[in-house]
Amino acid sequence: MAEIYVADRLISAGEELPPGHDAVRVAHGRIEAIGRGSELVEADPGASVSRFAGYSIMPGLINSHVHLGGDCSKSSFATLCSGAPDEVLALIRTNARSCLRAGCTTVRDLGDSGGYVARFRDSTTAPDSVRPRVLSAGVPLTITGGHCWYLGGVADTAAEIRSAIDGAVEDVDLIKIMAGGGYVTSEGPTPFDAQYSTELLRVAVEHAAQYGLQVAAHAHGSEPIVRCIETGVSTIEHCGWRSGPGKRDQNEEAVRQMAQQGTAAGDTTPAVWRDIAKYVTTPDYKYGSQLTWMAERDVEILIGTDSGVPGTEFDQLKLSMELYEELGFTRGKVIDMATRGAARSLGLSHETGELCAGLVLQRRFG
Ligand SMILES: [Zn+2]
Question: How far is the CA of 306 from the centre of ligand 1 (A)?
Fold first, then answer.
């Protein structure tokens, strides 16, 4: 039996659909038709009809950067790395539900350990069948002593990188590589430093491509960011163009190449960005200005929250989206980025990102 959902308005590609388009007909988990509620109901009197007066229907939001196995505390991956399997899966379930309640119907997990997120993604039984769509990168590749080494993805050489990818392909939807240092690993390379040479990043990109897998690369610093662009990774996470404490670069040539080859910037603005902005804004620097700079040069920006790491939550994508409004993006543009744009960059346009016939409206998996 088909289902018809009627609301006050429909929003797709960041725009309100023409007046009178207020309903969606769904059958077998896919959108069949978009149109006037009265006409859809008349044409299919046997359909179940749900009305949402005062509400809009839009594609689910996509949070492009989360860690479902993190608990947002100072030792955010302690349970993931040493908890009992049931405890870890319960944590992942709670976090995924939190995303879903906040309107995210797709999340991209960019690093767990032990294959837990993939196991959760593949679960088809209650209570895990009600959850967002999950893309899992599995364990991130990193160097000995490097960013998040404790998750278990150390690969220092070309042979080790290939072997790690070979071993992961059965479980992952993409590959994550720590191209530069980070903030949550106290020793090892700083966030400004590169961890891998351009040659080794290329090995990862080419080897992943043999399996049809994208590569998401973690890079705060300009040096690792430029190396990532040279090797053609799909997304550069954080992508802060940092060259040292309080210093940010604007490498016009590299950003032009980024836009041309379709490498997206994976932004991870925390929900508390207003507090951070107060401390870091100077006469020469406005918080988030590198995002405006990249967007003006046609780089696709993915909005994510890095939820799971210290000081984050899973239901706050909306707060991160508000930064873009502050930076001057229209609301429609921000919604489009977190729906259609993200679906395109993550290779999900055939499933989600817009309200149109053929795309998925899935209420449960399995
Ligand atoms: Zn992350």
Answer: 5
